Amino acid sequence: MRFDEQSPRFTPQLVTYLSISPAPRLSARQWGVLLLLQAAGYFGQFDRTIFGMAVPQIQSDFGLSDSEISYAASFVGFAAVLASGISCLSDRFGRARVLTWTLVPYTLATACTAVSTGICSFAIFQFLAAAFITAEGIISHVIVLEEMPAECRGWAIGALNTGSACGAGLALLLFGVSNGAWRLMYSLSILPLLGVGYVRRHLPETRRWSSLKDVSTARALQLEDPGGIQLPTTTMGSPVAEEDDGRSSPSKCQIKPLGQVKQQHAAILIATFLGSLFPSSANFNVSKHIQVVHGFGASGFAKLSLIGGLLSLSAFALAGYLGDRYGRKKLGVVGILVKTAVDVAFYSVAAGADSVAWIILLFCLRMALGMALDTNFQALSGEVFPTERRTTAQGFLVLTAGLGGPLGLLLSTRLVPYVGSVAAASRLLAYGQLICACIVCVWLPETKGRELEEINA
């Protein structure tokens, strides 16, 4: 695969045919980067999907209660702590290099899950796998933000997520065919090791990070020889304009001093935490709610998820396109409001033959809205931070979400004795998402069509 930076922009015919929204014109380098990142995300999402849909089977095999499987899921959720540290390294060593470092550990840890002898070993292997998969996802999204043109960053994030979602579709298909044989599915995760070398050889470093490193190197040489080295000239819109203040450097992971934290940074941090805490119970329990409460079983749930996923797959790119055109802030607020209503309705439908159509409709709507909101906020949360701290910041956001998710599950477990059921607890917590809509509406900036340097000027 050749990445020609000087090639004219074009749109592959296959992309034009498959995309429900207008596809952008990109260079060969940009299409190549997007394709490689989609491949990495495909296998990562395959691994990530298994635990969520095999909860009843894992719970049965290990003889766990509802609270015990929730505690195990909470522990795995804390993998975000390790993931944030791993992703932080890409601000120092480069996006492409650190991304390739994550591929081998997550495939090995996921494959080892297949031979776990109890919930403790299962949780440890899944903790390690989740950490490296999450780090890979963080870095992939940062690469897309830094490589793609301002007018189509949202669409590119959506396209990346679409490729990853196809991995989830494969997991759902195998889950249904194997009737919930989760050990077999985890064992198949060793296959991506075959492509690690190819990714390592062909994935280029982002130009923004490379430019920042060049400026840092030139600055260090200038300090040694003040008269012999001239710093690169920077202007607004150049890859290093936002960082060229004499203090920034890719030589280490950076934590911004508290006094320099902007309102937009604090707002996205709070919104991320609450946006993970409040819907976590609704998201985690959807598999069991469909399989057990509504009697779909493993095969029925897999078929429903596959059909719903196929119908909703276009939501990724469509949400990215709409965010590029109408604004991510506006789209985010509307999406959160609708998602809250759908979550509440989903867990309010009583079991019975008359409710099957409703539960299928609400399930598909939940899936599409989740895809759309993920795309929108992955773009927005990366755009509001400067290049020299972008991956470190994304790591902290994932850490924040990783703390919010397990805490939401624990809170739901504690609420069950008071509200009577898991469904009631999930429904109650879902209303909290309205707070996130308020934060996005009041405190976050609009980023559509703006260069990253302008947003962070």
Automatic annotation (TrEMBL):
Topology in membrane: Multi-pass membrane protein
Main location: membrane
Keyword hit for Cytoplasm: no
Subcellular location: Membrane
Residues in the signal sequence: none
One Pfam assignment: MFS_1
Cross-referenced InterPro entries: MFS, MFS_dom, MFS_trans_sf
Superkingdom field: Eukaryota
Cited Gene3D superfamilies: MFS general substrate transporter like domains
GO molecular function: carboxylic acid transmembrane transporter activity
Segments traversing the membrane: 69-89, 98-116, 122-143, 155-175, 181-199, 304-322, 396-416, 428-445
Keywords noted in UniProt: Membrane, Transmembrane, Transmembrane helix
Region (Disordered): 227-253
PROSITE patterns linked to this entry: MFS
Gene Ontology CC: plasma membrane
Residues covered by the Major facilitator superfamily (MFS) profile domain: 33-448
PANTHER family: CARBOXYLIC ACID TRANSPORTER PROTEIN HOMOLOG (PTHR23508)
Name of protein: Benzoate transport protein
